[in-house]
Amino acid sequence: MSEQREPQEQPEELESRHEESPSADSQDDGGTDDRLQELEVLAEERRDQALRAQAELENQRRRFERELENAHKYAMEKFASEMLEVSDSLEMGLQAARESKDVERIIEGAELTLKNLTRVFEKFGIQSEDPTGQRFDPERHQAMSMQEDPENPPNTVVATMQKGFLLQGRVLRPAMVVVSKAPTSPNIDESA
Q1: What distance in Å separates the CA atoms of residue 107 and residue 187, rounded to the nearest whole number?
Q2: pLDDT bucket at 75, cuts 50 / 70 / 90
Q3: Does residue 63 carry a pLDDT above 80?
Q4: Nearest Cα residue to 83 out of 117, 125, 123, 131
Q5: CB 82 within 8 A of CB 124
Q6: Hey, what's the torsion of the CAs at 31, 33, 36, 42, to 10 degrees?
Q7: For the sheet containing 175-181, what is the strand order?
Q8: Residue 143: helix, strand or coil by DSSP?
Q9: Rg (CA), the chain
Q10: Which residues pair with 85 in a beta bridge?
Q11: In 10 A of CB 180, how many CB atoms?
Q12: What mean pLDDT is predicted for residues 165-186?
């Protein structure tokens, strides 16, 4: 009769299992737990930094929007304050015209007012344009009519009805002009 025995563990296997005992596992878990806690703290710091950066960007966006809105609202402030001088000059000219019948003084006041207005325009980059004698440019001129003019080549501005204005070189208002066209030749009756 043969005895059946359960295989007995060899002493080496017992020792290796003993090394893998729960106390060794708890040390590994402790190291892992510490590392996990460090990573969680680091992740929380990064999350906090990201939230702060996002809040800062949002605040900066709002600040830029406010500044842009104010720039749009008050962009004309300097120009408007300069124009007040022109308005004052016009009012004084009208008052002088009512009190005096001297046409020369009225003309002189109007000329001074126009000079003041021109100074303000120059200060802010506004230039008037009288294109009479120049080639017609549809980008800068608005043709009001065309007329035959044997003295000028076709598409030449022969008269300016209203001056144009440029703001920093860009058309603010096109000049209203009369443009020359080639003279039409009389019809020759070929049937004769």
Answers
A1: 51
A2: confident
A3: yes
A4: 117
A5: yes
A6: -90
A7: 141-148, 175-181, 157-162
A8: strand
A9: 45
A10: none
A11: 20
A12: 90
Give helix 77-99 / helix 103-123 axis angle, nearest 10°.
180
110's CB contacts (< 8 A; 6+ apart) are: 93
CB atoms within 10 A of CB 45: 10
Taking the C-alpha atoms of residue 28 and residue 72, their distance in angstroms, rounded to an integer, is: 65
Token look-up 């065309």 returns 146
Instruction: Mark out the alpha helices in the chain (DSSP H runs).
Output: 11-19, 22-74, 77-99, 103-123
Residue holding tokens 């510490």? 34
CA 30: distance to chain centroid?
59
**pLDDT for position 182:** 84
Task: Select from 173, 179, 172 the least CA-distant residue to 147.
Answer: 179
Among candidate residues 184, 110, 181, the one with its CA nearest the CA of residue 143: 181
Picking from 148, 79, 153, the residue whose alpha carbon sits closest to that of residue 117 is 79
Determine the average pLDDT of the residues in 68-75: 85
pTM equals 0.58
- Amino acid letter for position 10: Q
Token digits of residue 89: 């000059």
Around 124, how many Cα atoms within 13 Å sit in the side-chain half-sphere? 18
Strand partners, 146: 179
